[in-house]
Write a structure and sequence with these properties.
By secondary structure, this protein is α/β, with parallel strands linked by helices. The protein has eleven helices and twelve strands. Strand 8, helix 10 (about 250-260) and strand 9 form a beta-alpha-beta unit. It starts with 5 loop residues before the first helix and ends in a 5-residue tail after the last strand.
């Protein structure tokens, strides 16, 4: 989308740029008819990106925005906690937004945060490619990507774990425990977290020469509903896997509900491992064997990168890879 300038609107309406500016800001003397003409032209022109640019140039508030796909997920709640702690230390306020796993909502939130004059953004994007976000490049607003890395964003600042390596290690551990019939429910292949975790799973099986059924690998979304639905489909098969790897905590929780409905025990009938199924309460039984991302550290390091980018806007992008933790539960 080409940015529309104030000069373009002024030329179209045969008005001065200062008159158009006063009409938009509501400051200064502008006739009501003229103001209405300007506002109508703005609505029709898609001027909003330049409006955001003006807000960014002002930058009167020390605000950082963060957009996550599911604020109710404990992983993202911990990311936000880490980001907020680091923001407070630096004298910034964190504005939190939830995209609900919807790329359209994400774009709307992105524009809203920029129009609120945030100094920078931490973004757990759900888009496949950052082409949707490319329209904001001229605004020079620093962005740090976490969790999912959209195609085309490789040169930007980012914080994550090595998802492929983590899934490979977890799968190898399952093989070492004697499980050879292993299935997986992963996230969307359009998101790097989903694609890389599946790649790591398949790489481990290939290294050990273990064949697997494609019917045992299901692609869903990172939600409990998806985990439940895809697990139900696997349970309909005449030949089921003996163990499952789930690509995030919500998929695992949904799938566990499906297993219980079927009257299957874990790990007696089905061994289970997952990403980020970290139970801090000790109430979940069985305790799920899990690879856990250092969520608070991801949030904190993302804000640190953002602050550094504000001080050094022309430096090369920094990719921070953190080490995940491991909980050896009793689900396998």
């Amino acid at each position: 989308m080409n940015a529309v300038r104030l000069e373009d609107i002024a030329r179209e309406l045969n008005l001065s740029v200062s008159t158009v500016s006063r009409a938009l800001s509501g400051k200064g003397r502008v006739g009501e008819k003229t103001r209405a003409r300007v506002l109508d032209a703005v609505r029709e022109s898609g001027y909003r990106v330049n409006d955001v640019a003006r807000s960014l140039r002002m930058r009167t508030a020390k605000n950082v925005g963060i957009i996550v796909p599911d604020i109710s997920n404990s992983f993202f709640a911990s990311v936000i906690k880490g980001a907020q702690q680091r923001c407070r230390q630096a004298g910034y306020v964190l504005i939190v937004c939830n995209s609900d796993e919807d790329s359209t909502v994400e774009e709307e939130l992105l524009h809203t945060l920029l129009s609120k004059q945030v100094s920078g953004l931490v973004l757990a994007s759900v888009v496949e490619s950052r082409s949707i976000l490319a329209q904001y490049d001229p605004l020079k607003a620093p962005i740090v990507y976490i969790d999912n890395m959209p195609q085309g964003a490789e040169g930007y600042d980012s914080v994550a774990i090595d998802n492929r390596a983590a899934a490979r290690r977890l799968t190898l551990s399952m093989l070492d425990r004697g499980y050879s019939e292993i299935g997986m429910i992963t996230g969307p292949s359009s998101q790097s977290t989903g694609a890389l975790r599946r790649q790591g799973f398949e790489a481990a099986l290939g290294e050990r020469g273990v064949a697997h059924s494609e019917a045992w690998i299901r692609t869903g979304s990172f939600t409990m509903e998806s985990g439940y639905r895809e697990m139900r489909e696997i349970l309909k098969l005449s030949r089921r896997p003996r163990a499952m790897l789930f690509a995030n905590n919500y998929i695992a929780y949904g799938a566990m509900n499906a297993l219980r409905e079927e009257g299957l025990s874990v790990p007696g009938d089905m061994a289970v491992t997952a990403f980020d199924a970290l139970d801090l309460t000790g109430l979940i039984a069985p305790l799920i064997t899990s690879v856990n991302q250092p969520a608070q550290q991801i949030g904190s390091r993302a804000v640190e990168l953002l602050l550094d980018r504000m001080r050094n806007p022309d430096q090369a992008g920094t990719r921070v890879i953190l080490e995940p933790g491991f909980v050896d539960g009793d689900s396998w």
